Fold:
Amino acid sequence: MKAVILAAGKGTRMGSLTEDMPKVMLPVVNKPILEHIIITLKEAGIIDFLIVVGYCKEKIKDYFGDGSGFGVNIEYIWQKDQKGTADAIGAARKWIGNRNLYRTGDERFLVTNGDVLASGYDIKKLCNTKGDLVLAARKVENPEEYGIIYVKGRRIEKIIEKPKKPENDLANAGIYIFKPSIFDAIDNTKPSPRGEYEITDSIQFQIDAGKDVRYSLLEKWQDIGFPWHLLEANESTMGDAGISDIRGEIEPYATLKGDVAVGEGTIIRNGAYITGPVIIGNNCDIGPNCYIRPSTSIGDGVKIGNGVEVKNSIVMKGTHIGHLSYVGDSIIGEDCNFGAGTKVANLRHDGRTVLVKLGGKKFDSRRRKLGVIMGNNVHTGINSMINVGAVVKSGANIAPGEFVK
Structure:
């Protein structure tokens, strides 16, 4: 079986994180989301990939190349105009039609959104489910935000996108098994009210045509639609990995507890106290006398200074967090520089969930703790203060003592 990965979109709901980076290249445990997807599908026996690219496509192609470095075969197709998921899948028609790709004799192929993570076990179960078309499904707490599927036994009877009054909590998880007949359905798909060609409409066309459309329930699934989902994916992936791998230098009076990975060329200085799970990349300078708390991932070339505390955060490559600073429940972009004493608040005083403004609209993160969402190349001055749920654009300069909200 072969796989098509939809990776053309920008990810506008990720705020400043995707100003110059496609969402699929954002890091989870120091690896792009897309790399996690490819590795998982490879574990399920899939080695031939077509990646549908668009926004910042060169960053994807430069990183993955032809796939040989990852033990797979990768080809690319450019979706110049993002006209919806059905249009993106339709772009794969000629590649799917290449019979030389069907080494297993199964003409079915897998399609996944480039922003959903599942386990290898679930992917294998999905691939082994019989039917003309199979959807991965997952029970969700907020069904009004997803496409909800209505079933009878193991068969799907209809799909409704983001129903105002959902009758169940079984959501379309964004991973599919198709036969080439899906392309005929795509040809008969009309634009949705928002002007896009939706694959769920194509699937409904096949249901109405009497096709055997089934679902496979996922045990593990993470949809990365908003920045805080990136934190959740980082936390859950790191917890599942259980990696302890020390390749750098640990000075005598540094303390590492639990699962901690330290990359080559990295030095952990005396007095640093690190509680896993934590992953630290290559050529980092950590400490002295700092505290790195669980579920934190630190990219290559990062410096963490004296008296700094970092908790449950993603710190991307090349960033420097100066002494006497605090960062909690935050996502920090590449090549940022924190002036001494920069503090990030991560808890509302009233204990309510944190609201985040993205694209002029406020969203409820449903998290009591959420710090800053910061783009690349941001500089803060000494004693800068950043309030809960703040979104800082790439290239911003925050003055000494300035309060950002």
